[in-house]
Design goal:
By secondary structure, the chain is of the alpha+beta class. It has five helices and eight strands; from the N terminus they run ααββββββαββαα.
Amino acid sequence: MTLETDISCLGQLPLFRSLPGPRLKLVALMGERLKFAPGATIITRGEEPEGVLLILRGDVEMLRPDAEEEGGGFAFQSGSIIGDVPLLSGQTYLGDIRATSQVEALLLPKDLFLELLQTVPDFGMAIARDLAARLYRLAGHVLENEKVH
C-alpha cells in the first residue's frame, strides 16, 4: 500500500476521523505495517505492549489463557485498536491474540499514541468512547457466558 492509501484508510476509522491531515500522515509514516496469516499468533499472553495495534483489515480474537482453539474468545474486527488497555494501565496482555482471518495492521509506537492522547482532545475522546464501547461489549459477553454455565 502507498502512503496515500494508508492515510485514506486511517481517516475512515472512527478513532482517526477527527485527526487533522498532518497528524494522519504522521501516524501513517510512524506506524509499522504488519501482515498476519489466519491462525497466526499476533501477541502472546504476558507480553508488554510496545504500542497499540490498529486492525486495518481482518479479524482477530483474544483467547482465554486455557483456550486451545478459536471461537471462545473476545473478537475484534477491522477498525479495532488493541493494546491501549495494557499500555495505559501499565499491564501485560491477558491472553494470546490470534488472527482469525488474513490481517493487515499498523503498529503505532507507544510514544506516538501517548502524544496523540495528550495533544489532540478529539482523539482522546474517540479513545474514551471506544474503551467504553468495548467495556459494554465485554460486560455483555461475561453476562451471556454466566447465563449459559
